[in-house]
UniProtKB/TrEMBL annotation:
This is Nephrocystin 3-like N-terminal domain-containing protein. It comes from Hyaloscypha hepaticicola. Keywords: Repeat. SUPFAM superfamilies: P-loop containing nucleoside triphosphate hydrolases (SSF52540). Transmembrane segments: none annotated. PANTHER family: AMELOGENIN, NACHT DOMAIN-CONTAINING PROTEIN. InterPro entries: NPHP3-like_N, P-loop_NTPase.
Amino acid sequence: MSIRQETISVAHQNTFEWIFCDPVAHQKLWSNFDQWLESGNGIYWINGKAGSGKSTLMKFVLNHDRTQEKLDIWSQGGKLLTPGFFFWRSGDRDQATQESLLRSLLYDVLERRRELIPAVFPDDWEKWCFLASNNVLISFSDWTLAKLKVAFQLLVNQTSHQLRFCFFIDGLDEYSGDHEDIATYFSELSSSEFVKFCLSSRTWPIFRELFQNRPQLRLQDLTFEDIQLYVENRLSSSPRMLHLERTDPESAAQLVQSLVHKACGVFLWVNLVVKSILKGLQGGKVSDLPTLPDLARYGMDILGS
């Protein structure tokens, strides 16, 4: 697991479950993700605003049993591997480069399928065996991007081992290199019937252009009910809010709906504002809380800082 993945919040209880449902039944516009897992190919693009919950959704999907079940059907008895990587420009620089991406994915796969190492690193294997037999420490610090690309290409081309890959790559907009290059790279790799990618990024023009014909969803359009559930559950943890719900249910409901609508699909914003409300409720009355416009400005100030 990458450092970035460890820092991402776990999805709030009962949120994001809709991604495995039929979008037609929900009367919402998104490409059927469940169907793509089971029988699709190429790339599935999860996109959305900053703070809309893309990384949380990617972590949710990557670790969900349903994902594994559907991909097992897609793999048709092959050896399924589902490595993930989360780009992160705010952390160590090494979390935002293509070198770190390929090193992480190669390690993730080869640590579980060590029999593939000679095929993926044919020029180095004998040397490593010799060094290891003489108790010499092997250094991998000199691996260039070119060498990593060759190794990764050899990995995804291992048809003799009946391998099937579904890679989950979060935060393409956090990549420190050229965004068109990295998006094109994934597109080229996904041309194999044995390899596919679930990618996430902000809805930037370069990604819209390259992924416009791919299965996709725009997250902020689909999380109204999730955000409402989150707000209701979090506020109900306050005794003062519960008192308001009993004595003035109309005002309590209005507060919830106002927060949900002002969030505009941005989970991070509503998380910050709800925390502020709960803090205010601990020290005073509901009437002492800042107005919603004040809270909205507060949330936007933090997001912009």
